[in-house]
Write a structure and sequence with these properties.
Distance between the termini: 19 Å
Helix content: 25-40%
Order of helices and strands: EHEHE
Radius of gyration: 12 Å
CATH architecture: 2-Layer Sandwich
Number of strands: 3
Structural class: alpha+beta
CATH class: Alpha Beta
Strand order of the largest sheet: 2-1-3
Number of helices: 2
Largest sheet: 3 strands, antiparallel
CATH superfamily: Ribosomal protein L30/L7
């Protein structure tokens, strides 16, 4: 399975509650914060819901070393 990195690039202030809850579910709290997830259909659907607020980067392999 592929992994993706999702970064919050716009503030959720003034957005609809559904978008704010989706960002929280993805684990994004602050501007420029990023999280890595498996690219499952559920995660991709959440990313699509908040696509106007986030930036997505596809990672290669099983994951990146920290």
């Amino acid at each position: 399975m592929h992994r993706i990195r999702v970064r919050l690039k716009k503030s959720p202030i003034g957005q609809k509650p559904r978008a704010r809850k989706t960002l929280k579910a993805l684990g994004l709290k602050r501007l420029s914060s990023s999280v890595e997830h498996e690219a499952t259909p559920q995660i991709l659907g959440m990313v699509r819901t908040v696509a106007h607020l986030v930036e997505v980067e596809q990672l290669s392999g099983k994951g990146s070393p920290r």
